[in-house]
Amino acid sequence: MQGDLLKLLRDDTFWSFMGMEPVKVTPQEAELKISLKPHHFQTFGVVHGGVFASIIDAAVGAMVVAQMTEGQKTATIELKVNYLKPGLGGDIVARARRVSTGNRVVVGEVEVYNDKQELLAIGIATYLVW
């Protein structure tokens, strides 16, 4: 399943557009990477906040998908991001861990780092599974 899951994630249209690469994905944790390109930056030369929000959302989503059974669907129902430092270039890495799992709701928290292992952003995403 792990190989199929990684292929599913890599082939996702949005993930491809964003340049998100799954490094590690399990039902309990995930690590994603983006090698930053010019389209990831806003007018003032720092990584756009939407890039951080996207990788945080996707990291939790990957954990959720890793545990879903055939026929289930999922979607984000809440996302919170705290931006701590600007992203200036190189790669960003999101490390997610599962915080809570209910009957239909999963919560995960994520830390986003740069190449120097500086913490750039933190976030929490909540997913509904049906």
Automatic annotation (TrEMBL):
E.C. no: 3.1.2.20
The reaction(s) this protein catalyses: a medium-chain fatty acyl-CoA + H2O = a medium-chain fatty acid + CoA + H(+); a long-chain fatty acyl-CoA + H2O = a long-chain fatty acid + CoA + H(+); a fatty acyl-CoA + H2O = a fatty acid + CoA + H(+)
Enzyme class name: hydrolase
Name of the protein described by the UniProt record: Medium/long-chain acyl-CoA thioesterase YigI
GO molecular function, a single term: hydrolase activity
Keywords: Hydrolase
InterPro entries, A to Z: HotDog_dom_sf, PAAI_dom, Thioestr_dom
Family statement drawn from the similarity comment of this UniProt entry: Belongs to the YigI thioesterase family.
Keyword Transferase annotated: no
Signal peptide: none
